[in-house]
Amino acid sequence: MLFFSRVVVMSALLGLFSQAGADELKQARQAIMDRFDDVKAENVEASPIEGLYRVTIPPQVFYMSSDARYVVDGSVIDLAERRNLTDEYRNQAINAAIEGMGEESMIVFGPDDAEHTVTVFTDIDCGYCRKLHESVAGYNKEGIRIRYMAYPRAGIPSSSYTKAVSAWCADDRKEALTRAKQGKPIPEKSCSNPVADQFQLGQSMGISGTPALVLETGRIIPGFVPPKRLAAILNGKTPN
User: Fold this and answer.
1) Which of 12, 82, 117, 126 has minimal Cβ neighbours within 10 Å of its Cβ?
2) Would you kindly state where each structural domain of the chain is located, as residue ranges?
3) From the CA atom positions of the chain, what is the Rg in Å?
4) CA-CA distances (angstroms) from residue 237 to 145, 230, 232, 240?
5) What is the dihedral of CA 183, 184, 188, 194, to 10 degrees?
6) Is 21 helix (H, G, I), strand (E, B) or coil?
7) pLDDT tens digit sequence for 86-143
């Protein structure tokens, strides 16, 4: 009988603690949403640190106090498990932001049933971007689809931006992009296009150089990576 009573008391206490936590989260969400117009309730979650709440605005992740007065922009690291929790959350947010753009806004090389898909922020006039594009057949052979998003490093407006728009607006986008990356002229065209949005997304992700490869995990690898090495990374055969 005494054991039963203890179970009832513990269950009641756990219920109270759970409700208290839910109420605190609700209050924190409201305070943070009042501070930022573009934050929704589902973007705010409790963090492993008491009093701090994780806020995700893909692709950004940061932490705020429950009254939305203080913000912490940095990494939360679990020393016991040797995990950078913020990197994990940020990678998830990066993936969500990229998928939110929609594959229809990208120029894709490779079959739909490829084993891996890598999203590449590219600049038509970047030397290593051109080297990467010369290797597209090699990536496809290794089972890797390449999805291009535009990142004209010179900004908007610029010659690189105009070329990216022209490639997107061409009747055959893949052919136009290939010609442009070979240094060949393509007809200058204008139409409704995603180039500016993709450039802004890259900036919000912290991309400054090209090519920038975004893996399926959300991890970003800067620079050119040869096909076989990229395949080894994707297949977990190398840590780098």
Assistant:
1) 82
2) 23-98, 104-234
3) 23
4) 19, 10, 5, 9
5) -50
6) helix
7) 999 999 999 999 999 999 999 999 999 999 999 999 999 999 999 999 999 999 999 9
- The catalytic residues are 123, 126, 129, 153
State the CATH class of domain 104-234.
alpha beta
Give the phi and the psi of residue 191 in degrees, each rounded to 5: -165, 180
Report the pLDDT value the prediction gives residue 240, as an integer from 0 to 100.
Answer: 53
Model pTM?
A: 0.82
The CATH architecture annotation of domain 23-98 reads Roll (3.10)
Q: pLDDT band at 22, cuts 50/70/90? A: confident
Alpha helices in 36-112 (DSSP H): 85-101
Is residue 216 within 8 Å of residue 117, measured between CB atoms?
Answer: yes
Angle between helices 159-169 and 195-204 (to 10 degrees): 120
Overall average pLDDT of the 134-155 stretch: 98
